[in-house]
Amino acid sequence: MLQHISIDLGLDDLSLLDLRDIDPPPALGANLLMVIGTARSEKHLHVSADRFCRWLRTTHRLTPYADGLLGRGELRLKLKRKNRRTRMLNSVGASDSSNTDDGIRTGWVCVNVGTVEDGRAVPHEAVDLKDDNYVGFGGENSGVKVVVQMLTEEKREELDLETLWSQALARYTRRKDRIAKGQIEETARSDHLGHPHLNASSSTLSLAP
Fold first, then answer.
1. CA torsion angle 51 54 55 58 (round to 10)
2. Cβ(3)–Cβ(118) under 8 Å?
């Protein structure tokens, strides 16, 4: 998948974040692997995301969901309208200097790939809901969820997802270490209190002439 994103789609500066152990899990789901890549332009961003989703459907029979993606027809129509507006302004010697959102410059597409089980991609429907030990919404899944974040260079610098998640991982690691240290100390105290004969022997020795 990384090879397809880098070579076939042409995204640059790929980064892989392993968020499988973080607790509580991210809003995108537990057992998460996140891939971040940079698109060369807004058009390249949407075209790459669209081709990536099509590749996942045809090659791996997945049903990916792309948040922020403009479809081929929608993107073409918006670009056509934008170019028409630019030509009209140029014809009267004016330029479009407004920062109005034209619906094209999203700068960010989040592709929810699906779940990887034992190194193989499996559809979302392959979730077992028959486990009596599971309580809650959805299904219990031991696979790894994969999410691909595609951003323009400007948007990637603005959001800085690598730093955001690296800090979250560092906080989780520190908290886990504190909990583990506390459990070790508690076990040591329990072991000490669980041997009263040691304390009795000590008292007997101290009272001996």
1. -160
2. no
Cβ partners under 8 Å of residue 123, min gap 6: 61, 62, 63, 114
- 157-194: per-residue pLDDT in tens? 999 999 999 998 888 888 888 888 888 878 877 777 66
Cβ contact 13:38 at 8 Å? yes
CA dist 25 and 19 (Å) reads 8
The first and second tokens of residue 147, run together, are 């999410």
With a CB cutoff of 8 Å and minimum separation 6, the contacts of 183 are none
Integer Cα distance of 201 and 188 in angstroms: 20
Neighbours of 106 (CB within 10 A): 18
CB 146 within 8 A of CB 120: no
Give strand ranges (E) for the chain.
12-19, 32-39, 65-67, 108-117, 120-122, 144-152
Nearest to 35 by CA among 13, 68, 56, 55: 13
How far is residue 162's CA from residue 102's CA, in Å, rounded to a whole number? 28
* Phi (first) and psi of residue 168, to 5 degrees: -65, -40
C-alpha gyration radius of the chain: 27
Residues in the chain: 209
- Contact yes or no for 127/141 (Cβ under 8 A): yes
The answer to pTM > 0.70 is: no
Q: Count CA within 13 A, CB hemisphere, residue 140.
A: 8
